[in-house]
Amino acid sequence: MIETDHPRLSITNQCNLVGVARSSFYYTGKGETPFNLQLMQVIDRRFLDKPYYGSRQMARWLRRQDYAVGRKRVRRLMRKMGLTPIYQAPRTSQPHPEHRIYPYLLRHMTIDHPNQVWCADITFIPMQRGFLYLVAIMDWATRAVLSWRLSNTMYPDFCVDALKEALNRYGKPEIFNTDQGSQFTSDAFTETLQEADVRISMDGRGRWMDNVSIERLWRSLKYECIYLNEMDSGFTAQRLIGDWIKEYNEERPHSLFDDDSTPMEVYNRRMAA
Question: pTM (2 decimals)?
Answer without folding.
Answer: 0.75
